[in-house]
Amino acid sequence: MKVNWPERIWVNSPVRKYVQQREAKFFSQLRTLVSGAQCLEIGCGCGVGANIINQTFSPAAIHAIDIDEEMLYAARKKMKAWNTVPLHLLAADAQELPFPDQCFDAVFNYGIIHHLENWQKGVEEISRVLKDDGTFYFEEIYPPLYANPLFRHILDHPKDNRFHGPQFREALAESGLNLLNGYKESRFAILGAAVKGRS
Ligand SMILES: C[S@@+](CC[C@H](N)C(=O)[O-])C[C@H]1O[C@@H](n2cnc3c(N)ncnc32)[C@H](O)[C@@H]1O
């Protein structure tokens, strides 16, 4: 589900960029990437996260998808200034990723899984495209944050089939994604990394 205009302002703000930079640093402390890594970012928005991933992990390439052509248009404009970023932008649905099985060393999710109507399918797709021992890095938020009495009137999210921490962690495990120790979680959000096929 595309973001509405108030959320668009938030995700394009300098504060959001600062938060993503801090989170990428935390991700890299949880697990580094192999050299020459192929990365995917789902729901890349205007591309800021992909640039941060590039600066933090120096991968060989980043594929970044979003369902919203307007977001991708903004990302294409911004990436002209980031001429060192090996970035491939594509319009696609995170619930049906247009990539073969086991082709990425890492998948990044900066707060988009709660935008998916069938979020469990999104988690399965992440696992499908990850190589064995590949890493899923995620920042994800729960209804007490995005659907509380204030934000549910301002923001636009799917209403059914929602998840909190226990359901999210269970879906990771069911998809063969093993949560690494050191993740941070509250009733509002989770920040962490999970490795495919490793317990
Ligand atoms: C909350 S924004 C996050 C944007 C960016 N990752 C960030 O952290 O600033 C959610 C993003 O997910 C995208 N999105 C929503 N549903 C999607 C889907 N089914 N497939 C791919 N992207 C989707 C939206 O267009 C939006 O850019």
Key structural traits:
Rossmann fold, eight-stranded mixed β-sheet, binds S-adenosylmethionine
Question: Can you describe what's shown?
Answer:
With about 200 residues, this protein is of the alpha/beta class. The chain has one domain (about 5-195): Vaccinia Virus protein VP39 (Rossmann fold), CATH 3.40.50. Helix content is about 35%, strand content about 25%. The protein has helices at about 5-10, 15-30, 50-55, 70-80, 120-130, 145, 150-155, 165-175; strands at about 40, 60-65, 85-90, 105-110, 130-140, 175-180, 185, 190-195. Strands 1, 2, 3, 4, 5, 6, 7 and 8 form an 8-stranded mixed sheet that branches. Helix 5 (about 120-130) links the parallel strand 4 and strand 5. The longest helix has 17 residues, at about 15-30. It is globular.
Quick summary of this structure?
This protein has 199 residues and is α/β, with parallel strands linked by helices. It has eight helices and eight strands; from the N terminus they run H-H-E-H-E-H-E-E-H-E-H-H-H-E-E-E. It has helices at 5-11, 14-30, 48-57, 69-79, 119-129, 143-146, 151-154, 165-174, and strands spanning 38-42, 61-66, 87-91, 104-110, 130-141, 177-179, 184-185, 189-196.
